[in-house]
C-alpha cells in the first residue's frame, strides 16, 4: 500500500506535464459524482474542490459529469476514458464496482475513488478512505457532554460502510463519555453491535431529513448527527425552527456551518473528511509521474479527518469539555484510546 502526500511541482515541470506548448494536450482531471451531485455540500462537493484547487494551482483543465442514477456510472466513466482524461476521480462507495470494471478494462487510464478500498488493490486505481470513526468519536463525546436530555441520535442515508463508520465512531464516543464520567447518555438510531439503525434510503430528500430528525427529537434527542449528504439540511432546517435550546445538529464530510449557511447557527460541529486534499494529492501524483495504485488513508494524525470549530455554539461547550476532547484526540493518535 502507498500513502500519497502532496508534492510541490515546479513551474517548469508543470509546463511540460500540462502541455502549455501548442504541441501537447492540456492535462485534464475529470470527476464523476455519485447520485448526490456536485452541490451536495458534502463529499462530492469537497472532492470537486480538490479538483478545482489543482486547476487554480497548476493551470490544468477539469471536467465534471454528475450521475442522476447508478446506471450513469459506467457510461460517465467510459466517456472520460474516451476523452483521454489524465486522471478520473469517482466519488462514493456506490461507484466501487463500476470504477473497478472501468479500470480493469482500461489499464492505461488512471483512476482514483473516494470512499472505497479494493482488496486486492488495482494497479491503476488509488482508493481514498478516511478513518472518520476517529473524528466521529470526538463528536460523540462532545454530544454526550453537551446534551441536556441525556439522549442523542443519529441516522444514515444508506447502510453502507462509509456511512456507518461515522455512526460507529459517534456511538463509541458517547460510550467513552459514559465510562469516563459515569453518565448514561443514550444513542438513538444506531446499534453498533447489530449494525442496525435508522436509514432514509437516499441522500437527497430534505423532507426525510426533517422527518427523521423530528422522530429522534420526539424521542428525547437534543443533538442529532445525520450521515446522509444533503438530507441533513432538512434536519438543520428543523433545528433552526425549534431553536438550539431544543435541537442541535452535527454535520458530516465538510464544515456545514460554512456549507449550509442558511442554517449555520444550529451546527454544534461537523465531522470532517479532507477529501479535497487527498484528491489534489492524487492529481499531483499523476502530474509528477509518481502515481501508483493503492490506498491513501485520512486519519486524525495526518489531518485527513477532524472536527470543525464550535462556531456560534461555542458557549455550549465548556472549557473543560473542550480540553477533554483535545486530550482524547491526542490519545487516539498515540493509540492509548481505541475508537472500536
Characteristic terms for this protein:
340 residues; alpha/beta; Rossmann fold; 2 domains; six-stranded parallel β-sheet; six-stranded mixed β-sheet; 11 helices; 40% helix
What do you see in this structure?
- The protein has 340 residues and is an alpha/beta fold.
- The protein has helices at residues 11-18, 43-58, 73-82, 96-105, 132-146, 161-181, 206-218, 232-242, 256-259, 275-287, 319-334; strands at 28-32, 61-65, 87-91, 111-114, 125-130, 151-156, 186-188, 190-191, 196-197, 223-227, 248-253, 267-273, 294-298, 305-307.
- It folds into two domains: 11-130 and 275-298, Response regulator (Rossmann fold), CATH 3.40.50; 132-272 and 310-334, 3-Layer(aba) Sandwich (Rossmann fold).
- Helices cover 40% and strands 19% of the residues.
- It starts with 10 loop residues before the first helix and ends in a 6-residue tail after the last helix.
Amino acid at each position: 500500500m502507498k500513502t500519497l502526500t502532496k508534492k510541490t511541482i515546479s513551474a517548469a515541470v508543470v509546463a511540460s506535464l500540462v502541455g502549455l506548448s501548442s504541441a501537447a494536450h492540456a492535462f485534464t482531471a475529470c470527476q464523476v459524482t455519485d447520485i448526490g451531485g456536485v452541490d451536495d455540500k458534502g463529499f462530492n462537493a469537497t472532492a470537486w474542490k480538490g479538483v478545482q484547487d489543482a486547476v487554480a494551482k497548476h493551470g490544468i483543465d477539469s471536467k465534471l459529469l454528475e450521475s442522476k442514477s447508478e446506471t450513469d456510472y459506467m457510461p460517465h466513466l467510459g466517456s472520460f476514458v474516451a476523452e483521454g482524461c489524465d486522471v478520473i476521480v469517482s466519488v462514493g462507495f456506490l461507484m466501487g464496482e463500476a470504477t473497478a470494471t472501468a479500470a480493469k478494462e482500461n489499464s492505461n487510464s488512471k483512476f482514483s475513488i473516494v470512499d472505497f478500498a479494493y482488496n486486492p488493490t488495482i494497479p491503476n486505481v488509488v482508493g481514498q478512505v478516511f478513518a472518520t470513526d476517529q473524528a466521529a468519536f470526538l463528536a460523540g463525546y462532545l454530544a454526550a457532554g453537551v446534551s441536556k436530555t441525556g439522549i442523542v441520535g443519529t441516522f444514515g442515508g444508506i447502510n453502507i460502510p462509509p456511512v456507518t463508520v461515522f455512526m460507529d465512531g459517534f456511538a463509541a464516543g458517547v460510550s467513552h463519555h459514559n465510562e469516563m464520567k459515569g453518565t448514561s447518555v443514550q444513542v438513538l438510531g444506531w446499534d453498533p453491535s447489530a449494525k442496525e439503525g435508522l436509514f432514509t434510503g437516499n441522500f437527497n430528500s430534505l423532507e426525510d431529513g426533517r422527518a427523521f430528525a423530528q422522530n429522534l427529537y420526539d424521542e428525547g434527542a437534543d443533538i442529532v448527527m445525520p450521515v446522509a449528504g444533503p438530507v441533513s439540511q432538512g434536519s438543520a432546517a428543523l433545528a433552526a425552527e425549534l431553536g438550539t435550546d431544543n435541537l442541535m445538529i452535527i454535520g458530516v464530510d465538510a464544515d456545514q456551518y460554512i456549507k449550509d449557511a442558511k442554517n449555520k447557527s444550529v451546527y454544534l460541529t461537523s465531522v470532517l473528511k479532507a477529501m479535497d486534499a487527498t484528491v489534489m494529492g492524487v492529481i499531483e501524483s499523476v502530474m509528477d509521474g509518481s502515481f501508483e495504485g493503492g490506498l491513501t488513508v485520512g486519519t486524525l494524525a495526518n489531518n485527513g479527518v477532524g472536527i470543525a470549530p464550535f462556531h456560534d455554539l461555542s458557549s455550549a461547550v465548556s472549557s473543560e469539555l473542550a480540553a477533554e476532547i483535545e486530550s482524547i484526540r491526542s490519545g487516539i493518535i498515540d493509540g492509548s484510546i481505541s475508537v472500536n
